[in-house]
Write a structure and sequence with these properties.
Blueprint: E1 16-19, E2 32-36, E3 41-44, H1 51-61, E4 66-70, H2 81-88, E5 94-96, H3 106-110, E6 128-129, E7 135-138, E8 141-147, E9 156-160, E10 165-169, H4 187-199, E11 204-207, H5 216-237, H6 244-251, H7 260-276, E12 280-283, E13 291-294
Parallel strand pairs: 3-4, 4-5, 5-6, 10-11
Antiparallel strand pairs: 1-2, 2-3, 7-8, 8-9, 9-10, 12-13
This protein binds zinc ion (ZN).
Length: 295
């Protein structure tokens, strides 16, 4: 169950990771679902609605009282099992930031024709909404919600106060940089969320995919540097490559062609942010088939 994942630190006693059987180019080894607590417990990100995974989660809970089912964000690899698990447990509350379009920035609400919407669990509705600062607690554990949009507008991260650990969902992953696909994804929000996560001064991140991160500050700085380098490369290439397909062909030379559609979504996210911050102009406006020029 925990192959390739480091054991919990002493302060994290009671933590169980259950890896969902949904490996793919976008999910790595699969989705990490977590059970937190000794006596009563919380479940974080029940994952995809795969019966074997649901059974594995129930086995990890082992009949203990479940205080809440927490969902980082409503993508199909994170949220669909929440309702099934709640039902199997006899009506435990599902807690999350909100419906799939909750938390969008003004820019993303304003721009039309962005496409996107990959992998959204469109029917997801939590029983109760959490905002930054809300806590869920049990015997010896406290989880505090932090709104961390960027990968998805309704993304929450959960800070485990006693362990100084953070469940970062897809905002910070353990194996790759995250997909940012407008209008759910927003690069400006993502950069602000990285700052917020770094400022929590955690000892460990538990991402939604990949192994845990033992130097959260360094990981946040690496991800920030990666995005800024990508942004600089896009900006510099614009005079010769004024469209998204041209930019992808030029910048993602080492990326397998199968991942170029995902790369194109990330490039669009960068271009929306460059337009939003006054460095690039889009004709007619930021969208997949627009032309872009430096200001
Ligand atoms: Zn996601």
């Amino acid at each position: 169950m925990d192959e390739g994942y480091p054991p919990p630190r002493p302060e994290e006693s009671g933590l169980i990771r259950v890896l969902a059987p949904n490996p793919s180019p976008m999910t790595g080894a699969g989705t990490n679902s977590f059970v937190v607590g000794h006596g009563d417990v919380a479940v974080i990100d029940p994952g995809p609605a795969i019966p074997a995974h649901l059974d594995a989660l129930l086995a990890a809970v082992a009949g203990r009282p479940v205080r809440a089912i927490l969902v980082t964000h409503s993508h199909l690899d994170h949220s669909p099992a929440a309702r099934h698990l709640a039902d199997r447990l006899g009506g435990v509350e599902v807690l999350a930031f909100g419906s799939p379009d909750a938390g969008r920035s003004g820019t993303m609400r304003r721009l039309a024709g962005l496409g996107g919407g990959e992998g959204v669990d469109a029917d997801f509705i939590p029983d109760r909404r959490l905002v930054t600062g809300d806590t869920v607690a049990g015997d010896g554990w406290t989880l505090r919600a932090h709104h961390t949009p960027g990968h998805m507008a309704n993304h929450l991260s959960f800070e485990w106060m006693e362990a100084r650990a953070v469940f970062t969902g897809d905002t910070v992953m353990g194996w790759a940089s995250t997909m940012i696909s407008p209008p759910d994804g927003d690069l400006g929000q993502f950069m602000a969320s990285l700052d917020r996560l770094e400022n929590l001064d955690a000892r460990r991140f538990h991402p939604g995919h990949g192994p845990s991160v033992d130097d959260p500050g360094a990981r946040c700085r690496d991800l920030r540097a990666h995005r800024l380098a990508r942004e600089a490369a896009i900006f510099a290439a614009l005079p010769d490559a004024p469209t998204i397909p041209a930019l992808v062909a030029r910048i993602y030379v080492d990326t397998p062609p199968a991942l170029h559609p995902a790369a194109a979504r990330n490039v669009l996210a960068h271009l929306v942010h460059l337009v939003e911050t006054g460095r690039v102009r889009a004709d007619p406006h930021p969208r997949p088939d627009a032309r872009y020029v430096q200001m």
